[in-house]
Amino acid sequence: MAATAANSGWLRGRVKSVPSGDCLVIMGSTKADVIPPEKTITLSSVIAPRLARRGGIDEPFAWDSREFLRKLCIGKEVTFRVDYTVSSIGREFGSVFLEDKNVALLVVSEGWAKVRDQGQQKGEASPFLGELLRLEEIAKQQGVGRWSKAPGASEASIRKLPPSAVGDPSNLDAMGLLASKKGKPMQGIVEQVRDGSTIRVYLLPEFQFVQVFVAGVQAPSMGRRGATDTVIETEISNDESNGDTTAESHTPLTSAQRLVASTASVPEVAPEPFGREAKHFTETRLLNREVRIVLEGVDKFSNLIGSVYYPDGDSAKDLALDLVDNGLAKFVEWSANMMEEDAKRRLKSAELQAKKDRLRLWTNYVPPATNSKAIHDQNFTGKVVEVVSGDCVIVADDAAPYGSPAAERRVNLSSIRCPRMGNPRRDEKPAPYAREAKEFLRSRLIGRQVNVSMEYSRNVSMADGPVSAADSRVMDFGSVFLLSPSKAEGDDAPAAPATTTASSQPGGANVAELVIARGFGTVVRHRDFEERSNYYDNLLAAEARAISGKKGIHSAKDPPVMHVTNLVTASAKKAKDFLPFLQRSRRLPAVVDYVLSGHRFKLLIPKETCSIAFSFSGVRCPGRDEPYSDEAIALMRRKMLQRDVEIEVETVDRTGTFLGSLWESRTNMAVVLLEAGLAKLQTSFGADRIPDFHLLAKAEQSARQQKLKIWENYVEGQEAPNGSATESKKEVFKAVVTEVLGGGKFYVQTLGDQRVTSIQQQLSSLNLQEAPIIGAFNPKKGDIVLAQFSADNSWNRAMIVNTPRGAVASPTDEFEVFYIDYGNQEVVPYSWLRNIDPSLSSAPGLALLCSLAYIKVPSLDEDFGQEAAEYLSEHSLNSSTEFKVMIEDKDTSGGKVKGQGTGTILYVTLVAVNDVTSINAHMLEEGLARLERRKRWDSRERQAALDNLEKFQEEAKTKRKNIWQYGDVQSDDDEPALPVKKAGGKR
After folding, report:
1. Can you say whether the dihedral through the CA atoms of 455, 461, 467, 473 is positive or negative?
2. What's the sign of the alpha-carbon dihedral 651, 653, 656, 658?
3. Which residues contact 352 (CB under 8 A, 6 or more apart)?
4. Nearest to residue 814, comparing CAs of 831, 830, 835, 834?
5. What is the 8-class DSSP label of residue 506?
6. How far is CA 554 from CA 221, 433, 455, 519, in A?
7. What is the enclosing helix (H) or strand (E) of 612?
8. Which has the closest alpha carbon to 6: 85, 123, 119?
9. 610-616 and 565-566: which strand pairing?
């Protein structure tokens, strides 16, 4: 029997669901992450028409009644009180107020429910029974709601329900529905939430009852109740539901209920962690709400997979994204693949953020090890000075002193990868579209102002295998924004936001996005917890556009091919043969590819498709390791690296370097160097041959007067014009010859140098018996090591010139080494190498590369080249003779030593201590060399030296010795590059 509710107090809550036209599920309010208590309240003394059970039909006006109450109350705050309970059916009946309005009175007044006949149970009535009866009579008189007097209204209010697809997929043509509705929004009302990512919905207007799995995510399972508890009782009659218990028999069980009842042995399975929370999250947003469903696909069991959107104010929210954002569901790849790429990316990004924040499901998540690390608060503004490749630029920070080498910062573009430029030293050619990607950035970024937002750093292995501290380097990645993108970008340029906030993209075009949109690169697919670009989604969208447009590397066409003749590494003879082609036009357009020194550059000549070494005529900067050398290089990098320039070629020197003048934006760049006090004017080149010579002289004079840089200690009148004072002061030292190459080149070691004695003593004290352990010692190209010389098994300092491909696999793997103290070069096995103490490796090499001054000696592959090398060896290398070495000139354009025959060259006069005639003269006398050609701008000292040597050449001509055996065969050709001579020589 019914009993009056003990608690007559009023409570507040929010309506969670509306099962029927006279029943509400109300939940209390609690703290976040706590599931609140619920009460199911049936309106006192009111009976609404009954909705259909599975396989049944609605009572007239049942759906309209439920919809009135649902729209009136769902999701709203209400005040309620339990009037009485019926313990036999476990139901509570009460009064519910929406603000100041009695919900039961509203329902009855609209005619959607009738007032229950009290019968025998006088105490079980609503406190507002009299008002309910009055409003019922008014509704009947007005013919509203269920009291409608319109013909056929009762029959029309009954829904025509198709067979339910829940539990029996055969009742629905899932593939047919997908074909007709894919990508199109369908309206529905959620009737049940099975778990956080599975809902059961009436699709409107057909009222097809279906189960929909939310695409791209999976919430924790709600487990399974015991089989005896899962038997679904038939719904009690309306009279029973409102307090009148009867003896009527229950409706027979359905086949599904009988099947469940027959599996009584199935044990209960508890919900997974956060399963209840995920279900409650979905219920409070979707249950009994109107939703929009977009079908994405159907699985092999004919289950519908779709995206679900629910109203939130004036906008719609994505349930899948909300679940993942709150850590209540996991991203599922197989169903996400049915979605659009943008939606899939958003889900993946949301899951990653939830993992980082360790929300709910990810509370105990342990991220995998990663070699990337976030960079915070390292944003700066600067100018791009170099484009290394399509995904790497060097930016000069505006906050650093102008021209300082430390101002330049290498920035690798975040989350993209462009084709590699290759390595000419390893004979690696650029990959397809590598040149195009680099040129795309060069033409748009060089000299332009950019904003840089550093985002992460990553340890990158320099060899195959796992990353280790010894064989890795740290690369910094960031996003670069071009402040004023050119109009030529067109549709590929992303729209710059009007304002810049801490969370939005800085003003300007994202350079990485431009590159990807043109098809010059791909977006890196990061693993979870790998740091990535803050604009990763934009990059993926740009890549999708490039793929659909078949641009660049995504095109089916053959990539463009460009063959560039490299005259930088070619022989001097080949460079001289090319000179007429560069002199056909007075001025040639070029691109500065590399700054070798303050006055020497590598240029790309697009018109002739060649690369050349180019130097300013008559202008010289300090050599490497000399004061202000780095400043001169930094200035030229800022002013002209990778800029479009014009050149005028005048001649080519003996090393194959072209000499001439260069203009950038109509400015003679030699003038810039001289004005900055970072170079000197050498008038011995010939003032009449240098364009703008008056400007050069004026610039140098201005720097002198201001005592800038190299002129800081200059005193007016102390330096004679044309450098005559410096020419008379020649450096002379004693030495022994340690190695002879071809073409008159050789190595010497200074006598009496304390460094020689110190290094030899340290080497002799070493115990080097044990062979290196493979993997622990991995010498790389350019490293200084100890190597065992094959001729006498002595250990000497050596530079690695060439290494085997890949990692060292055997003690017999061969390395080519250059002995920096003697000038020899040979190939030795890995077992002949040892690591070297930094105190030994830091000292510069003792072998000095020299060439006989004023004469031209045939190279090894020319006539009498072998005879010349043998003569020089016999009279210098294979004896203990000491020599006086007089330095006549110095060529520092070779840069750093990289192996035999490279680096700074000293042009010398070589005289044995016990002889009065130089080796230079003896070579001329034997007909194994010839004098260099005279030039009208030669200095007096050079002219005098040539005059002194000419008599020895005349004697060889008269006697028809060696190269003169067929008479005067003077040639204007310079020698080609010298081949490397293998091991041998003096120790």
Report:
1. negative
2. negative
3. 528, 529
4. 830
5. P
6. 42, 11, 28, 6
7. strand 610-616
8. 85
9. parallel
Write the DSSP assignment of 90-134 as a string of letters: TEEEEEEEETTEEHHHHHHHTTSSEEPP-TT-TTSS-TTHHHHHH
Residues 6+ apart with CB under 8 A from 220: 195, 196, 271, 272, 273, 274, 275, 278, 328, 329, 361
Distance from C-alpha of 920 to C-alpha of 340, rounded to nearest angstrom: 79
Question: Using N-to-C axis directions, what is the helix angle for 341-357 and 536-548, rounded to 10°?
Answer: 160
Strand partners, 218: 330
Residues 550, 529: Cα–Cα separation, whole Å: 31
Q: How many CB atoms lie within 10 A of CB 124?
A: 23
Q: What's the pLDDT at 34? A: 86
DSSP calls for 92-104: EEEEEEETTEEHH
* Strand ranges in 260-391 using DSSP code E only, listed in sequence order: 290-298, 304-312, 315-318, 330-331, 372-374, 379-389
d(CA 519, CA 513): 10
Distances in Å between the Cα of 341 and the Cα atoms of 279, 327, 348, 461, 505 are 27, 21, 10, 32, 21
pLDDT digits (tens, 9 = 90+) for 729-749: 678 888 999 899 988 999 998
Segment 683-690 mean pLDDT? 63
Examine the pLDDT at 170 and tell me if it is beyond 80.
Answer: yes
pTM of the model: 0.57
Residues 6 or more apart from 520 whose CB is under 8 A from it? 390, 418, 419, 433, 436, 437, 440, 552, 553
Closest of 435, 380, 437 to residue 408, by C-alpha: 380
pLDDT tens for 419-441 read 998 887 777 888 999 999 999 99
CA dihedral (790, 791, 792, 794) positive or negative: negative
Burial class from Cβ neighbours inside 10 Å (0-12, 13-18, 19+) for residue 271 reads middle
Those residues with Cβ within 8 angstroms of residue 488's Cβ, 6 or more apart along the chain or in another chain: none
Q: Is pLDDT of 970 > 70? A: no
Tell me how far apart the alpha carbons of residues 485 and 508 are, in angstroms, rounded to a whole number. 7
Please list, in sequence order, all residues whose beta carbon lies within 8 angstroms of the beta carbon of residue 915, skipping any fewer than 6 positions away: none
pLDDT of residue 768: 74
| Alpha carbons 641 and 903: distance in angstroms, whole number | 23
| CA-to-CA dists, residue 303 to 175, 200, 340, 949, angstroms | 10, 12, 19, 99
**Quick check: 234 pLDDT over 50?**
no
Q: For residue 741, which of 901, 625, 588 has the smallest C-alpha distance?
A: 901
Residue type, 649: V
Q: Which residues contact 558 (CB under 8 A, 6 or more apart)?
A: none
Handedness of CA 137, 138, 140, 141 (dihedral sign): positive
Bridge pairing between strands 610-616 and 658-664? parallel
How far CA 335 is from CA of 246, 385, 540, 943, in Å, comes to 49, 47, 19, 86
Per-residue model confidence (pLDDT) at position 229: 46
Q: Give the pLDDT band of residue 154 (cuts 50, 70, 90).
A: very high
Q: Which amino acid is at 929?
A: A
> Max Cα separation, the chain?
151
pLDDT higher at 30 or 358: 358
| Average pLDDT rounded to a whole number, residues 503-516 | 80
Say how far apart CA 546 and CA 550 lie, in whole Å: 6
The helices-and-strands tally (H runs, E runs) of the chain is: 24, 47
3-state helix, strand, coil in the chain (%, to 5): 30, 30, 45
Per-residue pLDDT tens digits for 390-425? 999 999 998 887 766 678 899 999 999 999 988 877
What is the C-alpha radius of gyration for the chain, rounded to an integer number of angstroms? Answer: 45
As given in the structure block, the two tokens for residue 59 are 């009572």
- The token duo for 435 is 């040149």
